[in-house]
């Protein structure tokens, strides 16, 4: 708290009235604070480039009328990078019941479609965005191979192969699904759009009437936008997005096959995540769903 007050004092010239820890997140440490009845968020990360990338994403989304927190200040304090942003008013979508969520569907679909269809300009590459706005890899195939590579030194997935020995992550199941992913990859690989990458109910803010904002820039990538449909399909059926694109006059080619490929991509990553977190029930439920998909 002393470090946070020191940063706030240096950036705002006054102390925060209230500082509270914010639950959630596996990469950032997140706190909210109040100055003169205005709400802000401060986050800490070991990776200084994370906030440089977020500044780019925030500016891009705001320019294209997608609600996203504006980054006000970035810096470094001791060994940690930090970013200060506006706090979007409202509650996460996870706090709303099914009837309330149904009311919010039109706004939700509109926001994610705007995000996915943002013109990419002169930026190139696939995979996770770098701080300059370009993709990390030359093509989607290279990104996939690197993303599930054994060697992930210095990342969240450092030494993740140990999960095959220390957790319930099943190596034969994992590589069966990985084989299927590579087979369906040909349907996803040609498509390059801006993808949120973690579009779930904890990253969507609403006041109950509209979607006020989308948060979390950590997994933005260039790839097939149907990836975002898979993340939110327990709230928005895939067919709703398909029909919406038809209404826009841009029907999604090879929709079902691209959807299966996206399910394998997000599902495979989720399996190793559930294993790392010790979420056994979630792991086996998802495993069975993935194995039931077409080969």
What gap, in angstroms, lies between the N and C termini? 52 Å
Name of the CATH architecture of the largest domain: Alpha-Beta Complex
Number of strands: 12
Mean pLDDT: 93
CATH superfamily of the largest domain: Aminoglycoside phosphotransferase (APH), C-terminal lobe
Strand content: 15-25%
CATH class of the largest domain equals Alpha Beta
Number of domains: 2
Secondary structure category: alpha+beta
| Strand order in the largest sheet | 1-2-3-5-4
Enumerate the spans where pLDDT stays under 50 for 5 or more consecutive residues: none
Radius of gyration: 20 Å
- What is the overall shape? globular
Helix and strand string, N-terminal first? HEEEHEEEHEEHHHEEEEHHHH
- Kindly state the percentage of residues in helix: 40-55%
Largest sheet: 5 strands, antiparallel
* Count of DSSP H/I helices: 10
SSE blueprint:
Elements lengths: L1 H11 L5 E4 L7 E7 L2 E8 L3 H15 L7 E7 L2 E7 L4 E2 L5 H19 L9 E4 L5 E3 L2 H8 L15 H4 L4 H18 L4 E3 L8 E3 L4 E4 L6 E3 L2 H6 L6 H10 L7 H23 L2 H12 L4
Antiparallel strand pairs: 1-2, 2-3, 3-5, 4-5, 6-10, 7-8, 7-12, 9-12, 10-11
Helix pairs in contact: 6-9, 9-10
